[in-house]
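ZP: hey, is the NBP complex queued? I don't see it on the tracker
AM: it wasn't, my bad. submitting now with these inputs:
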Amino acid sequence: MTQQFGVIGLAVMGENLALNVERNGFPVAVYNRSREKTDEFMATRAKGKNFVAAYTLEDFVASLERPRKILIMVKAGAPVDAVIDQLKPLLDEGDILIDGGNSLFTDTQRRAAALESEKFTFIGMGVSGGEEGALLGPSLMPGGTKQAYDYLEPILTRIAAQVDDGPCVTYIGPGGAGHYVKMVHNGIEYGDMQLIAEAYDLMKNVLGLNATQLHEVFAEWNTTDELNSYLIEITADVFKVMDPDTGIPLVDEILDAAGQKGTGRWTVDNALEIGVPIPTIIAAVTARIMSSYKQERVAAAKELVGPSTTFDGDVKAFVAKVRDALYCSKMCSYAQGMALLSKASQVYGFNLNLGECARIWKGGCIIRAGFLNKIKHAFDDNPSLPNLLLAPEFKQSILDRQSAWREVVATAARLGIAVPAFSASLDYFDSYRRDRLPQNLTQAQRDYFGAHTYERIDKPGVFHTDWIHVADEVPEPMMAK
Ligand code: NBP
């Protein structure tokens, strides 16, 4: 019993997290279902380091000091249950299982309840940052048994990304809270990526910027307080890479059909289930699905001819407006994500600290950005802030930029370039800021055909109108006037 930490699953994430834990001073035991991966790892990256390899789960468990701390880093879904079932007979009371994969939070809720009832402790931990983050410092979102987190904290705070106000890890909340926050992080990531893609589309296909110019624009945006972020940084890099075979920018050779692994859709499913509007994230998920209809789109492009995309304005000024539109849209997207976390916190009893959620996304993860500092402060200043757009610093930023944002969306519509996430964000803003929406008519229709009743703005109570008969009694000519 010499090793302080165990890792099951030596694919990309498990291997790199294991190296991160060992580098930070904790001896690690590793196990992988297929032996070859373990052998390869031990012979290469683990060589000369404080690792012990096990080829059976019995040996793996026996090599760990108690309470055992075991990170399961296998494919999400049934493999996680399979590993837990194999481990359970070998564990002792109080041992800690950590699922660090991208598990659906309801699976984590189920596993946490089952394991806690059997005297084990369980942590469902969202991990963001991909391969590099896992090795050098990811953003970690652990939820589950608080006592288990306390045991893990010395390790997690060492292996996480470090930013000016601490390590990018905090106890998120009970049950599936950690995986829920990771899911929403990924939904926001979808939104960010789609917004950047739309800015690129406008600048390339409307303004005619070439790859060098696109690189310069994104590199410059990355120096601004508003947009400085990992995703803008890597976007600038992408435009520098040429295809060695054709000599043209590699990005131009890439098929325009985006993949997805499910966390964006899970965010959308859950937002609809608990009743939180997240139109920007929905637009981002939908845009990836639409992109996958490549063949149909190629055929439709010949039939459904739109307007000319010729732009005859000031290119430099429009680039600045696209930047403002991107920033405003991004604010709306984060406002939606944070509102979703806030509602989920009530619905599932997660007791989330929204300022802390924003803080641990400042480093290590894919959505890391200077902007998250402002979000952290907005929720620290007012933990019950109903919407990020109402925080003083965000409110003024969006009001100052809204005319540029509207011009960009209007120009895109006029020229026939789809900007679904820019538009969805603007619609979110315009819906949220209006004190009267047209759903009074929706309520009238629902009451008309389904007797669903309605409330009135001038007096309390629940009302129903016999619309058919009342409407029939009103003479048509009078209505026509
Ligand atoms: P994968 O998701 O590709 O899973 C491969 C690992 O799962 C291998 O170690 C494999 O063992 C093991 N495994 C499978 Br498949 N079925 C198993 C079973 N029934 N019993 C035991 N082990 C089983 O690995 P990954 O890309 O490292 O991701 C791990 C988790 O982290 C996933 O949930 C993923 O969504 C999440 N994640 C990934 C990233 C990323 O950037 N890749 C980022 C953040 C989170 P084998 O070698 O024997 O087949």
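AM: back. The pocket of NBP is lined by residues 9-14, 32-34, 37, 73-76, 79, 82-83, 101-102, 127, 130-131 (CB under 6 Å).
ZP: great, adding it to the tracker
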